Amino acid sequence: MEALFEKTKSEILLKWPNHELKEIYHTDDQNGQTMSLIINCEPPKGVQMSYYKNSTFELLILPQIITDNYQNIRKHYSLSSRGRHFHLKGGKCYVFYQGYEYNEIFGRNILNRNSAYHRFKSIDKAVDLLIHELENG
Description:
With 137 residues, the protein is an alpha+beta fold. It is built from 2 helices and 7 strands, in the order αβββββββα.
């Protein structure tokens, strides 16, 4: 899952140059990483992604931003409680799990009750889906 995290992060940075991103929160320890970004498009979108112990990867797409201080977003400000975003229309939360076969990943949008887990045979396929959702979500 660390590879999926790093690949998604690099694709986001390629798609939206640094001047369009504000990294507002980033942790890194032996168990995993969490990173929150604001993509300065119209309207601004929030992205939070994390992985834990190389077994789970989660990516949240927040179509409308609720921040602790929206008028003056600085690096040390964080996105407000994620639970406050889940009622917003258009929000997505993708969760991915490592499959038993090498590079096999299962993922779905857990906010859509009708979605089933999809099997991805490569990290690139999963990243393509996530970038597509960021562009169009």
